[in-house]
Design a protein that fits this description.
The chain is built from seven helices and eleven strands. The chain is an alpha/beta fold. The protein has a four-stranded mixed beta sheet with strand order 1-5-8-11, covered by helices on one side. It has a four-stranded mixed beta sheet with strand order 2-3-6-9, with no helix packed on it. It has a three-stranded parallel beta sheet with strand order 4-7-10, with no helix packed on it.
Length: 205
């Protein structure tokens, strides 16, 4: 008998289903093969453990005890409605997070950035005195002009839009603005300006 044959007979031997001549051959193999004997001993111990479990008698549990046990178990966490909504609408969630970040950062800049900022072409032709930005008479600015945290005084021409953020503007009778004149004094208006300006810049790229 080889080891493979011996392994195939072990379970039948444990179940007392082997013929006497097969039992004799198997025991002879165990005598010369300690590996198979050890494997058989492990199977026997395992079956004894299983047999002991199967025969263990459990007392029936009353309904009252069962109810108490079930009540003491940790409750299944209820999935929050908003979390489910986020999982079902990922695109809207990302867009909302984007605008929230934009809103917070814009408000932060609105509260912190109080220095004069001038943006536009031909800045070297403008006159800047303190927080006052002057477009001199007879001068033409070729493009949009933005003044933040300052006073814009226009005596010449702006061939574009004029935007004054958190400041003031004075348009002389000689002033000519070819585009829109916008004055932004509120945080929400400034935020809207930043968003539309951002999308305008992206669309031109």
């Amino acid at each position: 008998m080889d080891c493979k044959h011996a392994h195939s007979l072990m379970h039948d031997y444990l179940d007392n289903e082997l013929a006497p001549d097969q039992i004799l051959l198997l025991k002879e193999h165990f005598a010369i093969c300690p590996t198979c004997k050890e494997h058989y001993d492990q199977l026997e111990r395992t079956e004894l453990m299983l047999f002991g479990t199967k025969t263990q008698h459990l007392e029936p549990i009353s309904g009252f005890v069962t109810a108490n046990i079930m009540a003491s178990l940790p409750k299944k966490a209820k999935q929050r409605v908003w979390l489910q909504w986020v999982k079902n609408h990922p695109a809207i969630t990302v867009a909302a997070m984007f605008f929230m970040v934009m809103f917070i950062s814009a408000l932060s800049f609105w509260n912190q950035d109080r220095d004069l900022m001038v943006k536009g072409p031909d800045l070297d032709k403008l006159i800047i005195e303190g927080d006052k930005v002057i477009v001199p008479k007879g001068l033409s600015v070729a493009g949009d002009l933005t003044v933040q945290n300052g006073q814009a005084e226009v005596y010449g021409e702006v061939n574009g839009n004029l935007t004054v953020i958190d400041g003031s503007m004075n348009l002389a009778s000689t002033a000519h603005i070819s585009g829109q004149v916008t004055k932004i004094d509120e945080a929400m208006s400034w935020l809207w300006y930043r968003i539309t300006h951002l999308f305008s810049e992206v669309s031109y790229r």
